[in-house]
Amino acid sequence: MPQPFYYGGQALIEGVLIRGQRNVRMAVRRPDGGIWTGPLPLNPLTSGRLRRVPLVRGVLVLAEALLMGMRGLNRSAEIAMADPDEPPVPDGEAPKVGRGERISMALTMAVALVIGIGVFFLLPLLGARSLDEYVESSIVSNVLEGIIRLGLLVGYIWLIGNLRDVKRVFAYHGAEHMTIHAYEHGRPLEPEEIEQFPTAHPRCGTAFLLTVVLVSVLVFTMVGRPDLEWAIASRIALLPVIAAVSYEFLRFSGAHSDRAWAQVLAAPGLMLQKLTTRWPDRSQIEVAVAAMNSTLVADGVIEPSAPPDDLRSVEDESSPEDGPLRRESAEAGQAAAEGEAT
Length: 342
What we know:
Elements: E1 8-12, E2 15-19, E3 24-29, E4 35-40, H1 44-47, H2 56-80, H3 99-129, H4 138-161, H5 164-184, H6 191-194, H7 205-223, H8 228-237, H9 239-255, H10 260-276, H11 282-299
Antiparallel strand pairs: 1-2, 2-3, 3-4
């Protein structure tokens, strides 16, 4: 029996991106007040059969989320900040990514990864090692490193969350979560129905980041406290392993979100989302609904002319999981998503 597909998405500049079974669609509020909808291309390297392999899929989903997020942000900025006197970008027009833009995105992603690893993995290590003369236990040292890492993560999220433009992105983040909640519960994708759901979602990328912090403590504790050079190498080399394990944990706990133990495990991630989501207004919910409906139509889950609550189940025999941030039928309920992000 095919597994249910789990829809997920990301917030953009004045927009929302939804990752479907075989498609990625985004919706962006144009300067004239209308809503633009269109596709983003899927990379075959991150959307093929390997996406169904446990542990491997976690790394692929993370890579795809980063790539889609960067492309989506660039595209949404072009549309949301376009000159209102110029003709609007036609709906359904896929972005044309030239060689220069691909190189630029690759360099930007590489720099972002280097900074991210340096700040959130190497800096906590150096901070914990500076206390070596006071700490004899390798377990305590790794726990301290994890505490520093968590503090940096929460502090960074809090800091950027106070920026005006980021607050709007976080409101779209909330709209995306609420819309996916409504769809997973089989409710009509209408603002009145969507507003009954919370802005936090157990499959959110924020929960993934928190899981990474906790899993890293366990993994690095098993490594012990080697020389600094080897410790630095381990933080870099084991990052894919930590991401893969964290993804599987989040996916499994999300698939059993109706269980008490899963709700307890999900609670810290839901609490952290108070910093990464805001309550959206009706116009932002409309954009999230447009993105969701566009993806459902592209996946063949609803007919182009069907009302939002006219959902029909679709089974993709060739790709039961691709076919995260991640729903095959409205009755699938709450489950772990791919994607991450949501």
